[in-house]
Write a structure and sequence with these properties.
Guanylate-bd_N; two-stranded antiparallel sheet; membrane; 11 strands; G_GB1_RHD3_dom; disordered N terminus; GTP-binding
């Protein structure tokens, strides 16, 4: 080995020693208890303690929590130390005074490692503040009890000597929780599996009734001939606990020593041998029923466990009294949001505007699908109704927005169609060549296009407006039609006189034009009144002839009048300039002869 390698080896050794010292320091730092939940100043609600949460956040494997609950001064902290194989001076603090030692909920900083169903699991132990101590409200005790029930995988109900009526009443939250979340269909994700309930009865002697007999006896119905409400409530809890038999077990533990105030100074060989044997059996029992904390189908690690704890604590602090209903809301909140999103995505695909009936039908279909999705995923049984109501309310709010959007789009579309029809009617009023057939065709087309294209809630309102507008337009057109047609025929007759006289010099055309002019200006005024003119068969014949010439599905003379006049004028001009030279001036019909002074006229002597 070269001398140059020696320093590096020494440096590596120093680095390794430093790393081991740091790990040892961290281990020693974590080998103590930390508060994770503390009471607020009023000792009514709970709040998180970051000191203990940091210890839990370091855990990267699935977590299983063992919590011990029970009355104050019942030996919960000592029991936890026994389960952890720690002395009182190493583990949880044990109080010998009358006030409670543990405030809130505390956790042992160093989790035990255990393989459960082939999965490496970190076991954390939770010590809870004893209930029924002086200076606290019952609501505070209920919150501690409720939080421990939700957090833990195994809930050890530590009771001295026997099971009292009050002890059963305190399990109401655990019962409600199990009824809401436990026993779901296999294969579906559950919000979380309720903790296994372990009745632990500590008593001075083990003779007489077994602990199972004590539990069974405590869960039997109490006669209630007077109809006492409190007894009825406790009896309901008894019934539910009996049904939950698969999720609970019972265990008895003798007193470790007669000198209870000296327990912290005693070693295992000083304790009662029966107690030591039963304690070891208890350790094995707890290990056998432990399972990782499952939330929504997933085993929680440290950071996820803290997030779960924050959710639960927020829900339990909401009301005056902690309830499973508030927990159900927390776990169903995300599901409600997903179902509302599903409903919204289904409704967004609709092409607005549409009729109110179709929109309502689409809403009901999307609504039913969202409710089915919620039913397949939701948590809770009895208290889930509130979440259903929230889902229904949120979908109604979304539907209101779609109703407003449909009304707006319908109004926008119908307004555009109405304006187009109004413009078309104005255009038909101002035709150069008035045509009743063309007006009727435009009238029918406008009605049909509006009927087929205008949809939605605004259709009825715009239909009324359109009917009034088109009725007025039709009346005005009919009123002006006969007058304009009469004036057009008079002007047409004069134009034909000029054309026949001076342009094409066609005498018969000029004569026909004069006859039409004289008929319109003299005969009609002398023999027909203004009203009777339009009901005369002759006038109807004239109108029919005019309509046939002016408008047909093949030719719209109003549109082609100017191009046709230009073409005819060009033809006449061509004929006047070149036609006579090329083809001569022979006509089958009589024409004017203007060659009085021509070169072929014979000269008189």
């Amino acid at each position: 080995m070269s001398s140059s390698q020696l320093p590096s080896l020494g440096t590596d050794d120093v680095g390794e020693r430093r790393e081991r010292k740091m790990m040892l320091g961290v281990f020693k730092l974590l080998r103590q208890m930390f508060p994770i939940v503390e009471p607020d100043p009023n000792h009514t609600k709970l709040r998180l303690s970051r000191e203990g949460l940091e210890a839990i956040s370091r855990i990267t494997t699935p977590i299983a929590a063992v919590a011990v609950i029970g009355p104050y001064r019942s030996g919960k902290s000592f029991l936890l130390n026994q389960l952890l194989s720690l002395s009182c001076y190493e583990g949880f603090g044990v109080g010998h005074m009358r006030d409670t030692k543990t405030k809130g909920i505390w956790v042992w900083g160093t989790p035990l490692e255990l393989e459960i169903d082939g999965v490496k699991t970190s076991i954390i132990y939770l010590d809870t503040e004893g209930f029924e101590s002086v200076g606290k409200s019952n609501v505070y005790d209920d919150r501690i009890f409720a939080l421990a029930t939700v957090m833990s995988s195994v809930l050890i109900y530590n009771l001295p000597e026997t099971i009292r009526e009050a002890d059963i009443s305190r399990l109401s939250f655990a019962v409600e929780l199990a009824e809401e979340f436990y026993g779901r269909v296999k294969g579906q994700d559950v919000a979380f599996e309720p903790s296994k309930l372990l009745w632990l009865i500590q008593r001075d002697f083990l003779q007489g009734k077994s602990v199972k007999e004590m539990v069974d006896e405590a869960l039997r119905h109490v006669p209630n001939e007077d109809g006492n409400k409190n007894i009825d409530q406790v009896n309901r809890i008894r019934d539910s606990l009996a049904i939950m038999g698969d999720n609970s077990t019972a265990f008895s533990l003798p007193q470790p020593h007669l000198m209870r105030t000296k327990l912290c100074d005693l070693k295992d060989e000083d304790l009662d041998s029966t107690y030591v044997a039963r304690r070891d059996q208890l350790k094995k029992l707890v290990a056998s029923i432990l399972r990782p904390k499952i939330v929504q189908g997933k085993a929680l690690n440290g950071k996820e466990f803290i997030s779960f704890l924050e959710q639960i604590l927020d829900a339990l602090n909401k009301g005056e009294i902690p309830s499973t209903g508030s927990l159900v809301e927390v776990f169903n909140k995300d599901i409600v949001e997903r179902c509302v999103k599903q409903y919204h995505e289904r409704m967004v695909k609709l092409r607005l505007p549409m009729s109110e009936e179709h929109l309502q039908g689409a809403h009901e279909t999307a609504h039913d699908e969202a409710l089915k999705a919620f039913d397949a995923q939701h948590f809770g049984r009895q208290h889930a109704k509130k979440s259903v109501d929230q889902l229904d309310e949120q979908m109604k709010e979304v539907f209101k927005n779609f109703v407003l959007a449909n009304e707006y789009q319908s109004s926008k579309l119908c307004e555009a169609l109405y304006t187009k029809c109004e413009d078309d009617m104005d255009h038909l009023q101002s035709l150069r060549l008035p045509s009743m057939a063309k007006f009727n065709a435009g009238f029918v087309y406008c009605n049909q296009s509006f009927e087929h294209q205008c949809v939605g809630p605004s259709k009825q309102n715009y239909e009324l407006r359109l009917t009034k507008m088109m009725g007025k337009a039709r009346s005005l057109f009919i009123k002006e039609y006969n007058n304009r047609l009469f004036n057009w025929l008079v002007a047409f007759s004069l134009v034909m006189v000029i054309v026949g006289r001076f342009i094409i010099k066609f005498i018969l055309l000029e004569m026909a034009a004069w006859i039409l002019f004289i008929f319109l200006e003299t005969y009609t005024r002398m023999f027909w009144t203004a009203e009777s003119l339009y009901y005369n068969p002759v006038w109807h014949f004239i109108v029919g002839t005019w309509e046939t010439v002016v408008y047909s599905p093949v030719l719209d003379l109003d549109r082609w009048a100017i191009p046709l006049v230009c073409i005819i004028a060009l033809c006449v001009l061509y004929w006047r300039c070149y036609g006579k030279r090329k083809h001569g001036s022979s006509w089958l019909l009589p024409m004017y002869n203007n060659q009085k002074n021509g070169r072929n006229r014979e000269r008189s002597e």
